[in-house]
């Protein structure tokens, strides 16, 4: 097993800037990548997208058209979720402390977010492994308490 690039003396600047005139025995950027390719990719997370994809904005928009005061908090939730790096419910709770995981009768685990000062509920299925949020429904507190969204 190879040591990680940092402990081997590879500096970040080695990866970002090629020397203008390297001495004969000096390693070039391509040498470093050839030697440490996969380790560097993992170390610097090259080519990975960490933004969560939210599907879709449409239920949010439809809800705030009926409840105009919900537009700002829903837009804020969408922005937060889009740039989040959630890998589990605890990560989502860092941004939304009152987010809860709820099991439906079909066995799905859905995440319920309190939106707009606990006035509204946003119910979503989050696939942490795919960094994907599927917005199922946005409800008022009363609609949520009726429980029909679980079906």
Helix-strand layout with pairing:
Blueprint: H1 12-16, H2 29-44, E1 53-55, H3 58-66, H4 71-82, H5 89-95, E2 100-103, E3 109-115, E4 120-127, E5 132-140, H6 141-146
Parallel strand pairs: 1-5
Antiparallel strand pairs: 2-3, 3-4, 4-5
Structural description of this entry:
There is one protein chain. The chain is α+β, with helices and mostly antiparallel strands. It folds into 2 domains: 12-44, no CATH class; 53-150, YaeB-like fold (2-Layer Sandwich), CATH 3.30.2310. It has 6 helices and 5 strands. It has helices spanning 12-16, 29-44, 58-66, 71-82, 89-95, 141-146, and strands spanning 53-55, 100-103, 109-115, 120-127, 132-140. The chain has a 5-stranded mixed sheet. It starts with 11 loop residues before the first helix and ends in a 5-residue tail after the last helix. The relative contact order is 0.12. Mean pLDDT is 77; it is low at 1-8, 10-20 and 37-49.
């Amino acid at each position: 097993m190879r040591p990680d690039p940092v402990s081997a003396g590879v500096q970040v600047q080695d990866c970002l800037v090629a020397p203008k005139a390297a001495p004969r025995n000096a390693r070039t950027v391509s040498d470093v990548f050839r030697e440490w390719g996969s380790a560097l990719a993992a170390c610097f997370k090259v080519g990975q997208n960490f933004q969560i994809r939210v599907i879709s904005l449409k239920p949010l928009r439809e809800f705030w058209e009926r409840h105009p005061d919900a537009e700002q908090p829903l837009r804020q939730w969408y922005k937060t979720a889009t740039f989040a790096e959630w890998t589990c419910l605890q990560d989502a709770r860092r941004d939304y402390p009152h987010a809860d995981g709820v099991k439906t009768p079909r066995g799905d685990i859905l995440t319920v977010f309190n939106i707009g000062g606990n006035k509204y509920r946003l119910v979503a299925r989050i696939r942490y492994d795919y960094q994907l949020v599927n917005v199922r429904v946005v409800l008022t507190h009363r609609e949520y308490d009726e429980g029909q969204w679980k079906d």
